[in-house]
Amino acid sequence: xxxxxxxxxxxxxxxxxxxxxxxxxxxxxxxxxxxxxxxxxxxxxxxxxxxxxxxxxxxxxxxxxxxxxxxxxxxxxxxxxxxxxxxxxxxxxxxxxxxxxxxxxxxxxxxxxxxxxxxxxxxxxxxxxxxxxxxxxxxxxxxxxxxxxxxxxxxxxxxxxxxxxxxxxxxxxxxxxxxxxxxxxxxxxxxxxxxxxxxxxxxxxxxxxxxxxxxxxxxxxxxxxxxxxxxxxxxxxxxxxxxxxxxxxxxxxxxxxxxxx
Length: 261
What we know:
GO terms for molecular function: ethanolamine kinase activity. The chain is α+β, with helices and mostly antiparallel strands and 261 residues long.
């Protein structure tokens, strides 16, 4: 954290430094625009400096706020607030120019991975898992998916609470399917079945359809596959995440039993 003072007193700022690996994964010009639009619309905290070449960003520090974690995000009241904030984002007129398509992102990440066997070693049935991933891709290509502004990286730590909900770190933001965002959020938050129902009811204010339920299950599977590949790419470049990738791909494999493919 950086503190800077002038005639108006002392202000605190957060500085984000990045590395070459992350910069390969992120389109910084898209992030810069989306970050600006999100903060202008009061979804995020204002960034006072953003260099799209280096990825260095300086953001105002949100005093008296706290980031969520996997324990605090289980609170029903907080989940209801997040659901309403996401619905507000998804129905907003934010003009993101880029599209976050998980299948296109997967292809790009895979092309960046130099040693493909690193990814395949995460699970002995990886070929079977990826065939299912491809089937789901073909399925969604036949669907008329409505795109909307999405954050796309809603891990608990990217959600701040002060007087209201703030969504930070818009690196992966772009136009996407709202159901993808919801599925990804529920996976990242490790919600129980009961809490998922509370969250979805708070978002939709109605019973979700069978097709919506199917799409949520497809996206939950796909997000584990995508972020396992992300982990492999990170580890190839010297960043290690323990058993994170194995945990995600094992969960994806278990989900296959219940998917209708």
